[in-house]
Amino acid sequence: MALRVVVAGLGPRGQDWVREVNSNPGFELVAAVDSDPVVLEQAAASLAVPTFSKLAEALARASCDAVIVATSVANHVEPCELALARGLAVLVEKPFTLDLPAAVRLVALAEQKRVPLLVAQNYRYMRAYRTVRRLLDDDALGPIGMITCQYYRVPQAMAASLAKTANSALWGAAVHHLDALRYVLRRRFTGVLAESFTLPWGTLPTGGSMQMLLTLEGDVRALYSVTYESTGHEYFERGQEFYLRFVGERGTLHVFQRWLVLCETGKLPRLVRRGSRNVTEEQTLLDQLARALLANETPEVSGTDNLQTMAVVEASLRSAATRAWVNPQELLAATHHNREQPEREQPKQKPDRQGAPSSC
Q1: Residue-range definition of the domain harbouring residue 39
Q2: Do 267 and 133 belong to one domain?
Q3: pTM (2 d.p.)
Q4: Is residue 216 part of a domain?
Q5: β-pairing, 209-216 with 189-197?
Q6: What does the pLDDT read at residue 341?
Q7: Among 43, 38, 37, which Cα is nearest to 10's?
Q8: Which residues of the chain fall below pLDDT 50?
């Protein structure tokens, strides 16, 4: 029996999820939701399922097992809460939330309701990253000491909703790359020194570009930069350039776009095949969702796992604001601690002479 799914948010990513669900025999799309009446009208004409302007109405009228949340970046929390509170599994697009406390709260709700909560961090399953993870697991480079990662996008490549958001480079791209780095390295981030800015000629809100110094467990250091303001390569690889370099004790691994070059000490550089792509990254995530629902397996992209990604994102924002090093692990520990503390009873205010509470 196919798992019944509601897709909330019918923008580009939502449409991707509609196609992926419809192409998977293990799933059935039973409803679609979007708050934009124009988008909803278009969806109603092209989809053979009921469409709704509100998720609550869709869940009341369409029986389902899971909700895929693909709403705009700033609107993930409410639909996740709505679905989780009803005991439904949730697969939410990245970024999970815009702040760490909200992510911790959603994970706690999923644990309370005992339902799967997955975050669609699909970059880690791209062939290049899967190959990097295999090479590092095989100890091809020896211990890793330093990493450089650079990502460039032309301005017009950004989605309209993202272009209105501060720190758009962080939410649009960095959250993917930071998650993929910790995944392939199997290490947690321990320090962030970040600067978020917009280039002088840029039109994006503050944060169209970002640079970071990073530390990870095992004395690993990384340099990361990302921008949606790089001009002049509109006709190269659909306006995006990517470079990643791992420096190990016994060699260096270069990733440029889709090419991987392994440079081992004393050997000629060689290209490394990425392997086949039998299924899309989205199908990998849907498979994890199915196994979580049907076999109670813990997904690799669980909300709990993604708290580590959210912690380094939160650290990046705080570091950019304070221009100081921030430890993501300390932020995560403090957030958990604050949630576990019972609310203190507020002291009663003394009435003034007229019987009204006094104010300071």
Answers
A1: 3-122+280-301
A2: yes
A3: 0.91
A4: yes
A5: antiparallel
A6: 63
A7: 43
A8: 343-360
